[in-house]
Specification:
Carbamate kinase, alpha/beta
Length: 309
């Protein structure tokens, strides 16, 4: 199970054009090809933080001309076009490497609790870094803003805890056939199961790392790799004494989260998801830089979290 951050495609300080995002999608597929060549069965989950924030801006800019779309629908929209970019980029990379594997994107729905208290607390950063004027404009419009783990102002969305993936049986059948599946894009559009109406959408963004941990457990994955834009989990992040942590037990990971040093919208959900996967399934969870995926799998870099012996 490979979880890629939305920042893998939309880099900070760079225009988030489709051309740039396609270029980064192509670059990010090299480690996936290496894993596919080695025979691993692979599911890709990707984030959409920068992209879904941009879609909200497009909605607001065009609201006098067309009806704005709800946030849950925008999550599904970004899952479609980001999945298309990753799928096409991986198909081309596999063909160039002469590795025969099918690739498909499945728009999956993520089950949440409609009464989750998190739906009343916007804590998930989306969009790009904001300047002071943009912060003031959003606040005047009644939008939630806050600081992310890097100290930048960002727009904030609510993020309920995921409970499961509705289309799990479909993903499972595809994986068993050897197909590389792009699933739970952007964490998947969140839904709750109404006893009368069936599945109903929720205007929120689910953390893709938490969803990937659940999906990895349900698929009985051996490894969950959370690939991001930092080398590892750091102790004392943001200080001169910052130190990369190469190995953590589940208990040590929980103690680290309890210190409050990990930011709520960034590294904390990654460590939490990794620890939950390792605790429940007994497999390895790895947090590493995207380009270091295969090396991290060999234990040469990144942070590996495992259950106590």
């Amino acid at each position: 199970m490979l979880a890629l951050g939305g920042n893998a495609l939309a880099r900070a300080g760079e225009p988030a054009t489709v051309a740039n995002q396609f270029r980064h999608a192509r670059e990010s597929m090299a480690p996936v090809v290496e894993l596919a060549r080695a025979g691993w069965r692979i599911v890709l989950v990707h984030g959409n933080g920068p992209q879904v924030g941009d879609e909200l801006l497009r909605n607001e800019a065009a609201r006098r001309m067309v009806e704005p779309l709800p946030l849950g629908v925008l999550v599904a929209e970004t899952a479609g076009w980001i999945g298309y970019m990753l799928q096409q980029s991986l198909q081309n990379a596999l063909a160039a490497a002469r590795v025969r594997r099918d690739v498909v994107t499945v728009i999956t729905q993520t089950l949440v609790d409609r009464y989750d208290p998190a739906l009343g607390r916007p804590t998930k950063p989306i969009g790009h870094a904001l300047n002071e004027a943009e912060v003031a404009r959003l606040r005047e419009a009644g939008r939630a803003v806050g600081r992310d783990g890097g100290g930048d102002w960002r727009r904030m969305a609510t993020s309920p805890r995921p409970l499961g993936v509705v289309e799990l049986p479909v993903v499972q059948r595809l994986v068993e056939q050897g197909t590389i599946v792009v699933a739970a894009g952007g964490g998947g559009p969140p839904v709750y199961d109404d006893p009368i109406l069936g599945f109903e959408g929720v205007d929120a963004v689910v953390d893709k790392d938490r969803v990937s941990a659940i999906l990895a457990r349900q698929l009985e994955a051996e490894v969950l790799m959370i690939l991001t834009n930092v080398d590892a989990v750091f102790e004392g992040w943001g200080t001169p004494d910052a130190r990369a942590i190469r190995r953590l037990t589940v208990t040590q990971a929980e103690a680290l989260m309890a210190t409050g040093d990990l930011d709520e919208g960034g590294m904390k959900p990654k460590v939490e998801a990794a620890a939950e996967f390792a605790r429940a399934g007994g497999g390895r969870a790895i947090i590493a830089r995207l380009s270091d995926g295969p090396a991290a799998l060999r234990g040469e870099t990144g942070t590996t979290i495992m259950r106590e012996p």
